[in-house]
């Protein structure tokens, strides 16, 4: 019986594949993120938003950005008006993340656009995330690259959100099963 292979990670493609900016900007962002965005002692949502915008994030009016948030690449973050970003949210956005207006991303949720998709060469594969208006991703969810969450959909806590989530759906669990509807809609007469 042949031995199961091991991927030689020293030969894997580099981590800088998704940077899209010179190294000095990425390093400067890492310092600013630590001081102004992730820092739990920095309590001003407005300052946090201004620093993110200075590095290229597109953030609408009235957005609330709580402490301990992480953003891998602010130039790949797009947030519509009046959205709420909870404490400890991590945007691991090696590709673009688009949040429409009035979106809630609750505490400790992890949004990741990168994967290796079980590749033998460990090359990075990225796909954007799109979350439509009024959607609510509750606490400690994981949102995977390539996901589109429909208008006013709701993901229950600890849901792994992936694929195409219908508008107004309530989803739950590791396979994002639709378990109900969020709002009762009147049928057309």
Question: What can you see in these coordinates?
Answer:
It is globular, with a radius of gyration of 18 Å. α1 (23-38) runs antiparallel to α2 (45-54). The strands form 4 sheets. It has a 7-stranded mixed sheet. A 6-stranded parallel sheet has the order 1-4-7-12-15-18, with helices on one face. Strands 3-6-9-14-17 form a 5-stranded parallel sheet. The protein is α/β, with parallel strands linked by helices and 189 residues long. It is built from 2 helices and 20 strands. The mean pLDDT is 92.
Features:
alpha/beta, seven-stranded mixed β-sheet, UDP N-Acetylglucosamine Acyltransferase, domain 1, globular, 189 residues, six-stranded parallel β-sheet
The count of domains is 1
Backbone shape: globular
Number of helices: 2
Q: Note the beta-strand portion.
A: 25-35%
| CATH fold-level label | UDP N-Acetylglucosamine Acyltransferase, domain 1
Report low-confidence residues grouped into runs of 5 or more.
Answer: none
CATH class equals Mainly Beta
Total strand segments = 20
Fourth-tier CATH superfamily name = Hexapeptide repeat proteins
The helix content, as a percent range, equals: 10-25%
Average pLDDT reading: 92
């Amino acid at each position: 019986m042949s031995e199961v292979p091991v991927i030689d990670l020293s030969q894997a493609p580099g981590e800088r594949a998704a940077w899209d900016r010179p190294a000095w900007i990425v390093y400067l962002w890492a310092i600013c993120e630590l001081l102004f965005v992730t820092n739990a002692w920095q309590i001003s949502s407005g300052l946090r938003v201004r620093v993110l915008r200075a590095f290229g994030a597109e953030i609408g009016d009235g957005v609330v950005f709580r402490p301990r948030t992480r953003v891998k690449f602010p130039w790949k973050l797009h947030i519509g008006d009046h959205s709420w970003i909870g404490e400890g949210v991590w945007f691991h956005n090696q590709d673009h993340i688009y949040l429409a207006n009035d979106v809630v991303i609750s505490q400790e949720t992890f949004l990741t656009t990168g994967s290796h998709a079980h590749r033998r060469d460990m090359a990075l594969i990225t796909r954007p995330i799109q979350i439509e208006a009024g959607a609510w991703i509750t606490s400690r969810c994981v949102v995977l690259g390539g996901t589109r969450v429909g208008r006013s959909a709701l993901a229950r806590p600890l849901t792994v959100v992936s694929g195409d989530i219908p508008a107004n759906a309530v989803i739950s669990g590791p396979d994002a099963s639709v378990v109900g509807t969020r709002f009762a809609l009147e049928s057309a007469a």
